[in-house]
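Slide 14.
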Amino acid sequence: MTKGTMELTTLTTVAQVLTQARKLIEKGWCQHVNMRESGGKVAYCAQGAVIKVAPMSLRLPSLVQLRRVTPSSITGWNDELGRTKAEVLAVYDRAIVRVTSTRGSP
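Slide 15: predicted structure.
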């Protein structure tokens, strides 16, 4: 595994996907695009981070869980004027808690 990449095959649950996506956002968050690269740094929006880390089979289930803890569409909510990185991380935290505390969740 090279620096800056993840082994997607090791991500087998929605909780793992959300946790890895949250880590990407901790490093850099953006609005109005899924991903932004500038000065060698990469930033992801709430949805873009999931798309980056999730294997295809877990993308939709992960996005559904994230959507369940946002008041509107993920991208619309992420891109709202005044939205902060801390708020996005808090939504991820709520989604992770929800998934890990619900028996039988993917």
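Speaker note: Residues 46 and 81 are 15 Å apart (CA to CA).
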